[in-house]
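Newbie here. two chains, one complex. Structure please?
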Amino acid sequence: MPDAGIRVRFAPSPTGHLHVGGVRTALFNWLFARHHGGTFILRIEDTDRSRSTEENLGFVLDALTWLGLDWDEGPPAPGYRQTERFDLYRAHAERLLRAGRAYYCDCPPAQLEAERKAAEARKETFRYSGRCRDRGLAAGALRLRIPDEGSTVVHDLIHGPVVFEHRQLDDWILVRTDGTPTYNFCVVVDDVDMRITHVIRGNDHLSNTPKQVLCYEALDYPVPQFAHASMILGPDRSRLSKRHGATSVQAFRDEGILPEAMVNYLARLGWSHGDQEIFTRQELIERFDVKDVASSGAIFDRTKLEWFSHEYLKMTDGARLAAMAIPFIERAGLPVPADRARLAAMLETLRERAKTLVELVEVGRFYFERPREYEPKAAEKFLTVDGAQRLQRLIELVQAAEPFTAEVIETAVRALAAELSLKLVDIAQLARLAVTGRTASPPIFQVLALLGRDETLVRLRAVQVAIAR
RNA sequence: GACCCCGUCGUCUAGCCUGGCCCAGGACGCGACCCUUUCAAGGUCGAGAUCGCGGGUUCGAAUCCCGCCGGGGUCACCA
């Protein structure tokens, strides 16, 4: 049942590369919007000017684009960065002040700090005393007046009702003494202004939610629905961070993880639909329900991410593989085959042998360059006087094969093996070592056909020379 | 420390609301075997969870109630 009225947002702070935790939040929001036919908004929280840079914003936009998480509203359109919206925050602050729901406070930071320490010593939560509540000051930091009694209930779509006693909350700062609005205030004003109906974000924001709810109420605005997804954890079960290794989307992209694998893995991390693991994008959109998002934290498991990537690699046709792999071939310092169709065919022989694009190139290195060396143990076994004789027969066979296809070569090699009373594997491995320098590769006859008669002969002869020495 | 969230195989999870179909199912990873020109892929099988712990309710609890314990998060004129 499409509900065009649904509006959700992803509000990253461009202070670095986009983190997998952030991406999952973006993904859940995007899926929720697409599932309901609603609107997905991208908003940039760039009030931290020292760390928010254009370059970082570029990383965020690139990452979302790479994953196919398109936004309906947001950059480059103006009006979706907090730094562009200061007037709005100021206007709301004044409203709150006039209505008596907020007041100025000029308590010196040093004194506040002392009180905080004292509260800590008494083993209590620090809570602003409310000293300036009724002083009627005309300047200072603007605080929200929070009721002393009662409680606020956050009706979370994932966790159910969560109760917070007002005694635990304090009159938090909306606007600093220097006139800049604080994060929690900006979020409320922005969400109201953008008519956000559902706030889907990380669990780390749950504790701040009652403060925000009280702010909505003070402003006399409807409170949106909240859904706090669990966090992504490192192996030690603490929140995933850089010290747990690569966590930016950019890093996974550089490693050659396929974007659809990233999306599928992140979706399954904390969300499930029965026993199904692999979902097409369309299935994800159809089946996603925020109610099915898990409430417990989940450890990030790159092994499983790689499994997904492997699965998608196996399903990808040669043409797309080629398009995706070319940058990786170049980055490895290898020449990109000019014949695109041939490259596509090569990559298709490789895809079930690699979990990432980086591995795809590595495992198929021999397609792009001649072997620099031969695996020592195998060389000892195959590159012998006997081997040289077999190699000679192989060369003759390659010269004669017509047409030069895997099938024709295979038939001829099988006949040769029978003639020499050898097992097929003996000749196959000799050929493999000669042509790839290794003992593992895609089916050797296919490899020879893909390499072509001339290149095959060059490599076989090179081995003959190596043996002769 | 206070407050809040969370707690099923190593990991992600199903089941929990509406107790019995669960001496707990699937997936990743791991092991074995089959297939096989190598490596993969594929197929088959297997090991792996006394459902955090302790009480209680009940004929019967992973599922309901109570109490603990453990982990994480939040407590800024940071975002």
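Moderator note: DSSP finds 20 helices and eleven strands in chain A. The longest helix of chain A spans residues 20-36. Thread marked as resolved.
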